[in-house]
Amino acid sequence: MGQNLSCGVKDDNGLFTAIQYGDIEVVKHVMENDANFVVKKKTVYDRHSALHIAAANGQIEIVNLLLDKSSVNPDALNRRKQTPLMLAAMHGKIACVEKLIEAGANILMFDSLNGRTCLHYAAYYGHSDCLETILSSARTSHVAASWGFSRFVNIRDGKGATPLHLAARQRRPECVHILLDSGALVCASTGGYGLPGSTPLHLAARGGSMDCVRELLAWGADRLHRDASGRIPYAVALKHNYGVCAALLNPSSAEPLVWPSPLKFISELNQDAKALLEQALMEINRERERSILKGTGYSVSSPSHSDATGMDDNISEASDSQLCCICFDQLCAIEVQDCGHQMCAQCTLALCCHDKPNPTTSALAAPICPFCRSNIERLAVIKVKASTVDQGLDVFSSPKQRKSRRSINLSEGSSSFRGLSGASFGKMVGRGSGRVSADLEWDKP
What we know:
Layout: H1 15-20, H2 24-33, H3 35-40, H4 50-56, H5 60-67, H6 84-90, H7 94-102, H8 118-124, H9 128-140, H10 142-146, H11 149-153, H12 163-169, H13 173-181, H14 200-207, H15 210-218, H16 233-239, H17 243-249, H18 264-267, H19 271-293, E1 334-336, E2 342-343, H20 345-352, E3 379-381, H21 386-390, H22 399-403
Antiparallel strand pairs: 1-2, 1-3
InterPro entries: Ankyrin_rpt (IPR002110), Ankyrin_rpt-contain_sf (IPR036770), RING_XB3-like (IPR056760), Znf_RING (IPR001841), Znf_RING/FYVE/PHD (IPR013083)
Catalytic activity: S-ubiquitinyl-[E2 ubiquitin-conjugating enzyme]-L-cysteine + [acceptor protein]-L-lysine = [E2 ubiquitin-conjugating enzyme]-L-cysteine + N(6)-ubiquitinyl-[acceptor protein]-L-lysine
Pathway: Protein modification; protein ubiquitination
């Protein structure tokens, strides 16, 4: 993809070597003698300009120096029609990416190698910071007005692959999450990339990335979607001997809880509330994974927000007002604004995710508060009091920690809410069925 930035060509002035290693004094000296020479000089084979080499090597001082010259084109093209921004995104040089975008670099340029943009490069190589910077620019630049932000997030390369396809195939879960959160289509099919008709879930199964599979399923990826050869992701995982992925992708296993992205109040959540609910969602799905893999000889890796928080099981009991009155397991963490009723994060998700989002429906009916039966239109995080923290309690804790709080009499309180306990979440999502042959072929991309 154009990674060769060879300076092994005739370089009488030592310009390219100086740029590559960040010798700004040499670059300044050459520019003082002949600034036009620096602007027009290119390597013989790859046709890299001075700006290409500086951006690819993360030499931000030299990038600044070159861009200060009004005659330097931030969208200069090399032999493969790659821009300096593409090379900076490819190599994860975030400072150079930010500077080039600030200088007016066009994020909608396509190379001639695979028809990819800087967004494809950042997703393919897993540079999440560069990906976020490019997406942030797309929200505020002319791209949003001319193309539309959603169209840019799902932009396809010459073989019909979106950035999400590339991130899933290359095992880049952070990039997968960012793209899905930005509106990437979870069930988009490829053209000529991989096997035609592959979705991001097919490609994640092909790469055996549990984290990518987990993210895609949590955003509503269809386990029954077939590629051009008629295979579902389950068959792809079996073909390449990824047993854990295959177990979770098996249509006969329980479906995961899906992030309720179509709901308006979910899209308007502040970052604290969103992070709390996402953490709860992943924990619910990990419990499902453990149930599926129990007795298979496989195990699920520990979550990044680890259950082991170093807290003892002998935790002081919370008062009735602090515990969620639906599950009696966890502290209330989320408040329904307007009516003021409070729930834990997992029970909030159970209400929001009871019906799996329909891809053909642009919006879903707001769920109903189980206490007052009013529509839930806005959520907020409850601020935890210092005294609660001193007791060693958290708004989100592991199942092991929750057991220590079970001394509360579950017969007290409304029996109509007990059906929504954390133990019944698995019943709130349906089960698929079907058997797929593992003897199907896969053409390597």
